[in-house]
Structures are given as structure tokens and as C-alpha cells.
Amino acid sequence: MSGAEDRQSILDAIRSALHPKGDDTARKQAVRERLTSHPSNLVPRRGKASGDARLKLFIETLEGQSAKVSRAKSANDIPDIVAAYLRESNLPAEFRTGSDELFDRIPWDKTPALTRHQGRGQGSDAVTMSRARSAAAETGTLFLTSGEENPTTLNFLPDTHIMIISKQDILGSYEDAWNALRDIYGARTLPRAVNLVSGPSRTADIEQIIVMGAHGPRRLHVIIVG
């Protein structure tokens, strides 16, 4: 039996179990509405926080997951924050980014010690930087979209990952964060990959001992702008 026949056999079994009656028009319409309206399920109370409470929840949750969080009043403050962090962490004063227009608006030349490289992440990169397009405060999770602007390799290859997110892009729930991405890219044209990051990579698979950097960066530094 071919793959197509296997698939059809499974679908026929499902239809039989559902006992459809008559025309499928109503059921097809229900599916179309579900795909276009994106209704939310039950959102926890922490996902409904707003204003200062939302920002406080986001920061506390991230820090509780071993991430460092810094605040920048504007893009002008970012070079000094990055330079200080790299110096304090005994890291080289260089990093790699994608081609996101946000990075072009940052006045890197005000801190000459910093060197910015561009392109996909390399195995030799010690530090990379990405832009998070949205975030969910309920779990301190940042949403990173793939593409030339922010290559996915930047998220996983280095030991140290710096993320920049605008304060206005920090939302309450996962549903809010996904809806924000749909507003940016279109409901049916999301990037090929959306990575959700809530802290440095870690695992406790072996004897329940926490090991940092198991599947990605050992250190995560989030800079909130605004």
C-alpha cells in the first residue's frame, strides 16, 4: 500500500469514527473559521498582566531562569551596555548579528572597542546577537524568527547570546505573542522557523544535575529597549 493510500485509509477511519451526517459544509466552515480567527484558549492570570506588572513579571521570570536582563532607554545606550557586559564576562569585544535593520540604527561607532560582524552564526563565534520580535511575559519567553535578518544559527552556536527586544514587543501571553508575529508577517506567511527561548540552554537529564550549554548558549543576556 502506498503512502497516499495509507493516509486515505487513516482519514476514512477517522471520518467513520466521527459519524458525519449529510453534507460536510458546516464542518468545513467551522474549520475555516478556526484557521482564520485564531481564538484563544484559557489564558492564565499571569498571562494577562499589563503595564509595569507585565514588565516586572517578564524580567523576574527570565532572571529566575539564569538570564541576565539589562534596560536601555534607547538604541544609543546599547553599545555601552554590550561593551560592559563583554568586559565583565571576560569575553572578546566582538559579536555577530544578522542584517536586521535594528542593528544598523544602533551607533556602534560610539564604542570603538566593539567589533560587529554580520552573517550566519559560525562555530568559532564566542558571542552573537539577535532581535526578538515578540515575547510572552507569562513564562519569560522570547520569540525569534528565522531569516537573513536574524539567522537561526546565531541562536544556538555561540556560548553567549545577546538578545535585544523593544519594551513594546513584550506581551502578556503566548497567544498575544503569536498574534503579534501574524501582524508582522501575515497569518499564512510566518518564517520557516520560530524559536522560543526562555533562558540559557540547560539540561538535568544525567543524574538530575543541571548542566548549562547542553544544546545552545551557556549565557543569555537580554536587553530591553524603551
Short account of what is shown:
By secondary structure, the chain is of the alpha/beta class. The chain has helices at 3-18, 25-37, 51-63, 78-88, 101-104, 153-156, 174-185, and strands at 68-72, 94-97, 115-118, 127-131, 134-136, 141-145, 160-166, 170-171, 194-197, 202-203, 211-212, 219-225.
List keywords for this structure.
226 residues; alpha/beta; Rossmann fold; 4-stranded parallel beta sheet; 4-stranded mixed beta sheet; 12 strands; 32% helix
Helix content: 25-40%
Secondary-structure content class: alpha/beta
Q: What does the main sheet amount to?
A: 4 strands, parallel
Query: What's the CATH superfamily, by name?
Result: NagB/RpiA/CoA transferase-like
* CATH class placement: Alpha Beta
Q: Give me the CATH architecture, please.
A: 3-Layer(aba) Sandwich
Q: From the 3D structure, determine the CATH topology.
A: Rossmann fold
Structure commentary:
- By secondary structure, the protein is of the alpha/beta class.
- The strands form four sheets. A four-stranded parallel sheet has the order 1-12-7-4, with helices on both faces. The chain has a four-stranded mixed sheet with strand order 8-5-6-9, with helices on both faces. A two-stranded parallel ribbon has the order 2-3.
- The model has no long low-confidence stretch (mean pLDDT 88).
- It has seven helices and twelve strands.
- 32% of the residues lie in helices and 22% in strands.
- It has helices at residues 3-18, 25-37, 51-63, 78-88, 101-104, 153-156, 174-185; strands spanning 68-72, 94-97, 115-118, 127-131, 134-136, 141-145, 160-166, 170-171, 194-197, 202-203, 211-212, 219-225.
- Strand 10 (202-203) and strand 11 (211-212) form a beta hairpin.
- The protein has one domain: NagB/RpiA/CoA transferase-like (Rossmann fold).
